[in-house]
Design goal:
CATH topology: Elongation Factor Tu (Ef-tu), domain 3
Shape: globular
CATH superfamily: Riboflavin kinase-like
Radius of gyration: 14 Å
Helix content: 10-25%
Distance between the termini: 29 Å
Strand order of the largest sheet: 1-5-2-3-4
Number of helices: 4
Number of strands: 5
Largest sheet: 5 strands, antiparallel
Structural class: alpha+beta
Bound molecules: adenosine-5'-diphosphate, magnesium ion
Order of helices and strands: EHHEEEEHH
Number of domains: 1
Amino acid sequence: PIEPWFIGGPVIKGFGRGSKVLGIPTANLPAENFSDVVSEHTSGVYFGWAGLSTRGIYKMVMSIGWNPYFDNTEKTVEPWLLHDFGEDFYGEEVRLAIVGYIRPEANFPSLESLIERIHEDGRVAEKALDLPMYAKYKDSPYLRNPS
Ligand code: ADP
Ligand code: MG
């Protein structure tokens, strides 16, 4: 178990790789705003809750790290919200409660195996977030209170 942590900010443009290449959109946050808390946490795949100011609170799974498959040089924070929005929401405030850890960052031999693993991570997150020990954070005031 991890100590939950809370970060948020406006959804910014990334490289467009999430939805365009993988079929998995990830809402990028300006990681430089909380580089301290990000560097404190080991790279890998986490799950938790995401609050979008005008829409609601959703399950999410996210990678924190350098995305070895793409050889990034910056550590990124990019949650995949486990909900079909049918549209983009760039610029909206997103608030995250990060409550659990799934696995370390890994490299994958092919894009297909990476995509398969991310879908598996999504299924793990879906289930875990129904457990009372993780579900209770859905009510965190932070998720609903953009400032
Ligand atoms: P970028 O590289 O700009 O982050 P992506 O291909 O990763 O682009 O797509 C992410 C964008 O898609 C988000 O910024 C958001 O506006 C939109 N989006 C739509 N549905 C979702 C979702 N379920 N989870 C995350 N982002 C989503
Ligand atoms: Mg993205």
